[in-house]
Amino acid sequence: MKRSILFDTETTGFDPDQGDRIIEIAAIELIDDLPTTNYYHVMVHPERDIPAEATKVHGFRIEDLEGAPKFAEIADGFLEFIGDSPMIAHNARFDFKFVNAELEKCGRAPLDYVSRAIDTVEMARKKYPGMPASLDALCRRFNIDLSQRGTHNALLDCQLLAEVYVELMGGRQRGLGLAGPSRNRNITGAADFLANRSPRKMAPPSAEELAAHTAFVDGLKEPVWRRD
Questions:
Q1: How far apart are CA 61 and CA 199, in angstroms?
Q2: So which residues are the catalytic ones?
Q3: Cα(38)–Cα(225) distance, rounded to whole angstroms?
Q4: Mapping DSSP to helix (H, G, I), strand (E, B) and coil, where does residue 3 land?
Q5: 87 and 116 in contact (C-beta within 8 Å)?
Q6: Half-sphere exposure of 19 (CA within 13 A, CB side)
Q7: Where would I find the H helices in 85-129?
Q8: Residue 7, helix vs strand vs coil
Q9: Which of the listed residues 10, 67, 96, 136 has the most CB atoms within 10 Å of its CB?
Q10: Partners of residue 224 on adjacent β-strands
Q11: For 178, phi and psi rounded to 5 degrees?
Q12: Which UniProt keywords apply (predicted)?
């Protein structure tokens, strides 16, 4: 039995060396390259502002993260969940760089990229040279439903990437409970929020939209670690 971890992050920007920080981490357990029902998900207070440009990407403002734990408070739980398993990510250098910057800030050892990283961008480029290798492009190639992906969201992106990864590995038993309308059913209300909000609306949000957004974010402020 081979265990690996597929993960994704959302951040305040593109470069931790310039002070950008993680605001969301999601990770899904794979056994023999197929997703299980075990996952880890947490929103993180970045201890800084979130630029408007970043909010346009993932939809989160610093006000949404008031009361969320800081990375130092969730580091041990995250490390316990991932263990010593290989780590799969789309553009893995980006996510590894951010995670390692956060780990170093709180006195933990960084993850070794060379021995642990599996980059699905590199896999896709080798399998389909000259073709687009973005997550959206690969989902379209494999007919994976993108209807809920209005903005970037680490947990939803992990679920989509899990399906893409199975296809890149040969398409064995694609989905295993992740595909279709029930994909997010058990994950902290993410499906309802992502399906119903209008993330790029330019008009001010209504009271109902603000209430739904606040309820969704409040539900993510405690780390979620599901192990069946």
A1: 12
A2: 152
A3: 7
A4: strand
A5: yes
A6: 5
A7: 92-105, 113-116, 120-127
A8: strand
A9: 10
A10: 41
A11: -90, -25
A12: DNA replication, DNA-directed DNA polymerase, Exonuclease, Hydrolase, Magnesium, Manganese, Metal-binding, Nuclease, Nucleotidyltransferase, Transferase
Are the beta carbons of 178 and 162 closer than 8 angstroms?
A: yes
What is the rounded distance in angstroms from the CA atom of residue 198 to the CA atom of residue 104? Answer: 36
Amino acid at 187: I
**How large is the angle between the packed helices 120-127 and 154-168, nearest 10 degrees?**
40
**pLDDT score of 153:** 82
pLDDT digits (tens, 9 = 90+) for 12-60: 999 999 999 999 999 999 999 999 999 999 999 999 999 999 998 888 9
With beta carbons less than 8 A apart as the criterion, state whether 90 and 157 touch: yes
- Give the angle 218-71-213 at the CA atoms, nearest 5°: 20
Q: Using an 8 Å Cβ cutoff, are 32 and 217 in contact?
A: no
Q: What angle do CA 57, 58, 64 make, to 5 degrees?
A: 135
From residue 59, alpha-carbon distances to 28, 162, 222 in Å are 22, 22, 19
> What is the pTM for the complete model shown?
0.76
pLDDT at 87 over 60: yes
